[in-house]
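Board work, copied verbatim: Endolytic murein transglycosylase
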Amino acid sequence: MLGTAALLAVLLSGLWVWRQLQPVNRHDSHPQYVKVQSGQSASSIARVLQKRGLIRSALVFRILSRTSHLSRSLESGVYRIRPSETPQQILQAMRTGEVVTIRVTIPEGYTVQQIITRLVAAHIGSSPATYLSLLQHPLPGMPAPAPGVRDPYEGYLFPATYKFAYGTTPAQALAIMWQTFERKVEPLYSKDRTSLSFVQWVTLASIVQREDKKPQEASGIAGVFVNRLVAGMPLQSDATVRYALDNSIRGPLTYTNLTVVSPYNTYLHKGLPPGPIANPGIVALKAALDPKAEPYLYFLALPDGRVLYATTYAQQLANIAYVNQHP
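↓ predict structure ↓
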């Protein structure tokens, strides 16, 4: 049997260990950000946590990680840790990889400049100027920009909701969006499905995306543009003119707007513009691959999302008159 002194030593030791497993301050929920490097040992992490005042004992944290079989399975990344958390909670967060992320939603049809504005608002890059040099050089695998292309990245940053790791740089964010495009979009394209080149396909999809207000109309609008291309008619897409004007016009376009000198002005130039005018989503991309087979050469997109189609210019004028009479 243990003697009194030995028993007391065991009790005191147990009490000490129990105390080291408690939060440093249960009432302090102010977060600190701790970066765990890939391959960093539990011992090294423990020393950092103790130095930052986030755990009581680096020794106990290290022993706990080993007895829990977690010492070699801690995920790298930046963690948000509070003094009110226990070592067990901190270890669990690092085991499951609960790293700090920056959530950014990029809507379908956003331009590169709109995307950059959102990224900067999420503190990925200090200002739009931090992206200027990056945008001059396409990423590996991106289509080479044709003459007249304003932004080589336009069309190839996939619109989605992203969870960027804390500390993501502008270059990393752009690369992630391009890699998502490669993974989700490139497999859709097949020369057996369209006579358009890859760049032409994405360009057409971007125009459909900007013209369309309801997903169910995308295929019909794509059909009109394809028919006009086949007939040798100018596309006469207002969306391309707006892009030529840096999307600075909020209301209806004027005649002067339609005469803007730009390779993106499809009122002045037949065929597709030199490159995409936005970053299209999957629906628009699929519509550009599978346009509706109807004889329509004109459409009128209404504010409520409805689309009126016409085969002749006279029918188009009748649709315009109808809309003007029934605002």
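Residues 263 and 273 are 6 Å apart (CA to CA).
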